[in-house]
Amino acid sequence: MNRISLMAVAVGNIVDIVLSSIAGFLAAIYVLKSSAASTNNMDAANQFVLASGVFWFWSTLLGSLGSVLSGYVAARMARHDDVLNGGLSSILSVGATVYALVRGGAAGHEALYFVSLLLSPAVTAFGGYLSARHRAR
């Protein structure tokens, strides 16, 4: 248990969730603004955004970059076992993904959620790896 810095992992999780949420919000705004979709009806706008491949692409790309940064932040705060602490900074994302899959919130996009479930710890661990490389220099 000495290898895990709970404070660093907690901060990394918060950074991951906040940056992923911001990425999703910005991608949704982009999709709505760049289309002629009516935003008067929130349900219709939500369905339009979720059906957009552009939304999924940009939210995944930006969210992944945010996850790399969160793994990096967690590893730098921990100052040891960078990859482990970086990888653990995805616990909340993994939990939210599992919750969405179990509760049916991923309707129609289960494959993307499963990919996210597998890649989230790998991406945050990569951020920890980058921190270890930076520290080694």
What features would you describe in this structure?
The protein has 137 residues and is mostly helical. It has one domain (6-136). The protein has 6 helices and no strands. Helix 1 (6-33) runs antiparallel to helix 3 and helix 5 (91-103) packs antiparallel against helix 6 (110-136). The longest helix is centred in the N-terminal third of the chain and has 28 residues, at 6-33. The protein is elongated.
Brief descriptors of the model:
137 residues; mainly alpha
Task: Describe the structure concisely for a colleague.
Keywords: Membrane, Transmembrane, Transmembrane helix. The chain is built from six helices and no strands.
Largest sheet: none
β-strand number: 0
Q: Uncertain regions: pLDDT < 50 for 5+ in a row?
A: none
Distance between the termini: 27 Å
Give the overall form.
elongated
The helix/strand series, from N terminus to C terminus, equals HHHHHH
SSE blueprint and pairings:
Blueprint: H1 6-33, H2 42-50, H3 53-78, H4 82-87, H5 91-103, H6 110-136
Helix pairs in contact: 1-3, 3-6, 5-6
Transmembrane segments: 7-32, 55-75, 87-106, 112-132
Keywords: Membrane, Transmembrane, Transmembrane helix
